[in-house]
Fold this sequence. Notes:
Strand order of the largest sheet: 8-9-10-5-11-12
Number of helices: 23
Distance between the termini: 73 Å
Shape: elongated
Helix content: 40-55%
Low-confidence stretches: none
Amino acid sequence: MSLRRIGWFALLAAIVLLAVLPVPEFWITQLNFIGIATLAVLGLVLLTGVGGLTSFGQAAFVGIGAYTSAYLTVNMGLSPWLTLLIGLGLTAASALVLGWITLRMSGHYLPLATLGWGLSLYYLMGNLDALGKYDGILNIPGLSLFGWNIGQGRVFFLITATLVLMGALSLNYLLDSRAGRAIRALKTGSQMAEAMGVNTLRFKIGIFLLAALLASLSGWLYAHYQRAVNPSPFGLQIGIEYLFMAVLGGVGHVWGALAGVAITKLLADQLQVLLPSLIGTSGSYETIVFGVLLVLVLKYAPDGIWAFIDRKLPRAPRAVDWDSAPALPERAKPATGELVLDVQAVRKEFGGLVAVNDISFQIRAGQIVGLIGPNGAGKSTTFNLITGVLDLTRGAVSFRGQPIGGLSSRAIAALGVARTFQHVKMIPDMTVLENVALGAHTRGHKGALAAMARLDRAEEQTLFKEAQRQLERIGMGPHLHEMAGNLAMGPQRLLEIARALCTDPALLLLDEPAAGLRHKEKKALVEVLRQLQREGMSILLVEHDMDLVMEVCDRLVVMEFGTRLMEGTPRQVQQSPEVRAAYLGTEH
């Protein structure tokens, strides 16, 4: 039995023992409030810690779940179980509208929007007569099942604990999946994820929605446990408190949510008694302590308290259970000599600056074409125009006869164009295998719900089998289970190539793949490129290592100040006085 499974059984046993042993009722009450808050904070772990999207509006979604159930049960006599579904529906609609508007933006817009959302809902709840204004709604019925009261004490604790465990387990399953790798890629920015075929907006809205639904469930439990609601527990201050709990426990760790809530709730309870006796006067002095504690955590433990525990836990490598999995289907490749990429007079202007000035060239199947030039010549900009990162000012780009100018990066990636980046883009806290499996995103179909229910295992085996094949193909097999962040620069470059190959491309764009590689690693890279060429792969290579370029490229396109200086074989380029002048500043 694995250590992880033993841990789950131990946790379940502890919950049952707490429910049946004669522990003080105050403990059970505290545990209930800890469980209710943990559900809301779990959503922030997914949204902020994993997805990199900061939200101050989590308490507002808790309020929607609480007020919906309170109003419908008290004023309309509906069953609390029915009001749970209605509350989740209202929360989902609110989250979708808010997310659709704000998640298209970047930077500070989402935090500001959730601040506005939280404040608006707080004052709405406090000013509506139907909701009791600031006095709220009283006499909310407790939960019952077939006439059995389950809305208080130990039975309620078992329900809350079960929901917390199900939420944590579902999130762990989600993060260990095709959808989870796409979600974890969001934190590094959208460029790399989109280049792997990930619809970043869809996943941002998805995790925003899931976080809101967890908050709504928390609010429903709160309303029927407290049996009264008012706007105070759903204001902006509580939204900030949820974020504090997530950061304290470890915002990037699922179990950090439980740790952060438990520490905060228990410490607040003790400080409310201890501080007034020490200072001699009453007041919310615990807020000052928590402010200082947050500064210390951000300074000395930015990954949170759970990170210390996580580092101490033994981490077994992923079991290789995909040997018998079927291979992924491959796309039809172009015949040797077929026109793969046709770049015709592409131009990119940034205001009055012309970064790329009417560049034209072609790549045929099985060719390695080098795009070279001094720093600032416009090579990477040309790459970004081909792959959809930047929009064309004018000109046309066709891939296998299909116009791709104006398409998104993920649409171009789905057609069979893969790329690496000048500055390595990978997810350091995922293994090498998981990073490379992200490249096969468009070759899988299982979504978040299937992952959370663990119905995606067969597909995951095929994706990991493909990732292992591509790693072994470029000599990275021994690093399969190593954390990507622990790799040196050279292996990181090779990881990017393996990830790009995992997309099953017909055209591979490599942006300075030899940067940071040692001599032996460069020799291995040359062999990989030659092998790919023999297999019919077409490659566009940007590289400053002229020895490597001259050795592997069939043709070279030389750029200078955004214009095409010349095109020819490596020998023709070497002998060109114009090229020597561009590189050396002299014709002699």
